[in-house]
Amino acid sequence: MKILLVEDDKTIASGLEYSLQQDHFDTVLCYDIQSAQKIINHEISSIDLCLFDLSLPDGSGYELCKLVKQKSDTPVIFLTAYDDEVNVVMGLDMGADDYITKPFRIRELLSRIKSVLRRYNKQTTIIKLHNIQINTLEGKVYKNGEEIIITALEYRLLLIFANHVGQVLTREQLLERIWDVAGDYVNDNTLTVYIKRLREKLEDNPQKPTLIKTVRGLGYKVGD
């Protein structure tokens, strides 16, 4: 999977490029509108997703988004320092698929990227969570490179967490999603059992989980 990243702050760009590559994405990095336009005009067919900073030294990410959408159906996510409704709406109206406001956590950005790619049926095959890897093509889970045997419902529950990194999911939300995906009846007590089993298989110390965290009074979330 190849991502076109356009960001003029070289420190931020370097950090994003490294994180994306660590998550098994190939990257094409540009620092301005002019160089990005060349990539879009000649290589957009090889690009799976675009990350555009909204404010660039020689123009706006809006220009790049418009050019991309004229040439292809490639998804676009804006990186913006402007957290106001006008800029957000303008970007979405131009065809952008999502936006994320700086400063942001890299795990949140990766979650947004994977969510958008799924909507476009450009499935990522490897999802990394700390020392856990999920190979969605094979339906297998690995911890520190060694395969972990989990049940079908445990796998589905883990995917739900993996697709919502950094987000708090209530027990009701988890039950609804498991029902939608599995088609099996899962009650509140059963959910507790499955979360316990997942922790026993995936956590280094199930009594002090660092992967699937409990948010007291709210639910659970996968930690960054």
From TrEMBL:
GO cellular component terms attached to this protein's record: cytosol; protein-DNA complex
GO terms under biological process: regulation of DNA-templated transcription
Keywords associated with the record: DNA-binding, Phosphoprotein, Transcription, Transcription regulation, Two-component regulatory system
Record-linked PROSITE patterns: OMPR_PHOB, RESPONSE_REGULATORY
Chief localization: cytoplasm
Subcellular localization: Cytoplasm
Residue ranges flagged as DNA-binding region: 124-224
Domain OmpR/PhoB-type as annotated: residue spans: 124-224
Alphabetical list of InterPro entries matching this protein: CheY-like_superfamily, OmpR/PhoB-type_DNA-bd, Sig_transdc_resp-reg_receiver, WalR-like, WH-like_DNA-bd_sf
PTM-bearing positions, type 4-aspartylphosphate: D53
Domain Response regulatory: 2-117
MF GO annotations: phosphorelay response regulator activity; transcription cis-regulatory region binding
Protein name according to UniProt: Two component transcriptional regulator, winged helix family
Natural source organism: Evansella cellulosilytica (strain ATCC 21833 / DSM 2522 / FERM P-1141 / JCM 9156 / N-4) (Bacillus cellulosilyticus)
Lineage: Bacteria, Bacillati, Bacillota, Bacilli, Bacillales
